[in-house]
Specification:
single chain; 524 residues; alpha/beta; Malate Synthase G, Chain: A, Domain 4; 8-stranded parallel beta sheet; 12% strand; glyoxylate bypass; Malate_synth_C_sf
């Protein structure tokens, strides 16, 4: 077996390192990261190239369908996922948010069952954000003032997706995968401590587009467990089904992770983004204003039903989606209406058969808990088999969505996109806009809709053709308005410069986060 010093040859850390970082980036931990990179980065890059090839097929009019080569997996009722792990049996309310210290403390002190600490969509991937999140994980309960009147929420970490890289950490001249960097440091430093406390190293796995990407995660998990000498199957991963291609491979994704599977989650905003992104060249997939694309429109309803049916058939959790509302403190009537919307959404999830749900703000936890406590008296409802559900290709691709494209909808999309990009330029990954917590997922929906509307020259309800000149005119108007009302030194005009290239129906970055990461100023 190679020595630590020999493994460390070829490793370079380009980010600033302070004393607390040195504890995280110990020689042994860095050697583990190098091992992960050398073992798996080749496969990761091959899988990303498969995405490019698949996109080219979709651009030519090909449509996804259930895979004939894995039909035997889908039709075999005998196999099941892993049994729920300690701390993950009851997940009725999960809170999510970035990994800054204040959020960690607030989340762990909330009346929720789990906390998903997010190194992905709600965190801007600056070096400081990513490495300080790891410092906070390692310090954990020892240095936080946490409640003692109830069991603390189970911690689940969401690493970055396979497409993102950590450019401040290179191995043999290549940047390490953001996924492997985030997973590796958290797992290496915390796995045994988590097990000693009665839970384990648990993860949310984002942005996957095929079961082969789940297979890669499973290989990573096995290597990690073998490396630190803990039993295989200790790790658990909940997969966010937030791409239209993954929706056709849900059985296969659970199968690949089956010894480590903790179920699937409805990543609703990323899912809508994926539908627009994957079919952006296809005029049959043009959606109306974002506000019209609710969870009850045909393609979203089919996705939810199939996810619940698939998970419960395999006896793993089927988690619901995000309530992104923020309490409106200065307007009781408006706040009451918003909270009624949250209640209705959580009621829909509980009655559909979900085993739990997400909230972005601690104040929403009580509403979600009330709903699930009333309608799910058991720790989960995996016994709700949804055998009544029959979902096929046409159901998942049914774009019959009532609604219009309006100038108001265009301006709202621009405001969300500019608000997110301006926050990102300041190193903030989620921003409150109109009493909703907007992150990368909602910004992606906004810019992808604008791109597609311009590309296809759609008319608005007011009779105006959406073209490049019109989009840029509205972009300037919104940027000027936001800049005039924003704090001194805001970056809305700079955000507009970056955003302008993504809303004109021409260039289209695979992800805003990777597009932004290529801008030096975004990484400072």
């Amino acid at each position: 077996m190679a020595t630590t010093d020999s493994i460390l040859q070829g490793v370079n850390i380009l980010g600033t390192i302070n004393d607390s970082h040195k504890k995280i980036l110990s020689k042994d931990a860095v050697a583990f990261l190098a091992l992960l990179h050398r073992s798996f980065n080749g496969t990761r890059k091959e899988l990303l190239q498969r995405r490019v090839i698949r996109q080219a097929e979709l651009d030519k009019g090909s449509l996804p369908d259930f895979l004939p080569e894995t039909k035997h997996i889908r039709e075999n009722d005998a196999w099941k996922g892993a049994k729920p792990a300690p701390g993950l049996i009851d997940r009725r309310v999960e809170i999510t948010g970035p990994t800054d210290r204040k959020m960690v403390v607030n989340a762990l002190n909330s009346n929720v069952w789990t906390y998903m600490a997010d190194l992905e969509d709600s965190s801007a991937p600056t070096w400081d954000n990513m490495i300080n999140g790891q410092v906070d994980f390692k310090q954990g309960e020892k240095e936080y003032k946490l409640r003692t009147d109830r069991t603390l929420p189970t911690l689940i970490v969401r690493p970055r997706g396979w497409h993102l890289e950590e450019k401040h950490f290179t191995v043999d001249g290549e940047p390490i995968s953001g996924s492997l960097f985030d997973f590796g440091l958290y797992f290496f430093h915390n796995a045994k401590e988590l097990i000693a406390r009665g839970t384990g190293p648990y993860f949310y796995l984002p942005k996957m587009e095929s079961h082969l990407e789940a297979r890669l995660w499973n290989d990573v998990f096995n290597l990690g467990q073998d490396y630190i000498a803990i039993p295989r199957g200790t790790i658990r991963g909940t997969v966010l089904i937030e791409t239209i291609l993954a929706a056709f491979e849900m059985d296969e994704i659970i199968y690949e992770l089956r010894d480590h599977s903790a179920g699937l989650n409805c990543g609703r905003w990323d899912y809508i983004f994926s539908v627009i992104k994957k079919f952006r060249q296809n005029s049959n997939f043009i959606l109306p204003d974002r506000s019209a694309v609710t969870m009850t429109v045909p393609f979203m309803d089919a996705y939810v039903k199939l996810l619940i049916q698939t998970c419960h058939k395999r006896q793993v959790h089927a988690m619901g989606g995000m309530a992104a509302q923020i309490p409106i403190k200065d307007d009781k009537a408006a706040n009451d209406k918003a909270m009624e919307g949250v209640y209705a959404d959580k009621l829909r999830e509980a009655k559909a058969g979900h085993d739990g749900t997400w909230v972005a703000h601690p104040a929403l936890a009580a509403i979600a808990s009330e709903v699930f406590n009333k309608h799910m008296p058991t720790p989960n409802q995996m016994f709700v088999r949804r055998e009544d559900v029959k979902i096929g290709q046409n159901d998942l691709l049914n774009m019959n969505v009532p609604g219009k494209i309006t100038e108001e909808g265009i301006r709202k999309n621009l405001n969300i996109g500019l608000g997110y990009m301006e926050g990102w330029l300041r190193g903030v990954g989620c921003v409150p806009i109109n009493y909703l917590m907007e992150d990368a997922a909602t910004a992606e929906v906004s810019r992808s809709q604008l791109w597609q509307w311009v590309k296809h020259g759609v008319p608005t309800a007011e009779g105006k053709k959406v073209d490049k000149a019109y989009a840029l005119k509205l972009l300037k108007e919104q940027a000027d308005e936001l800049a005039s009302k924003g704090a001194k030194g805001n970056k809305y005009h700079l955000a507009a410069q970056y955003f302008s290239g993504q809303v004109t129906g021409e260039d289209y970055a695979d992800f805003l986060t990777s597009y932004g990461a290529g801008k030096r100023s975004l990484r400072q």
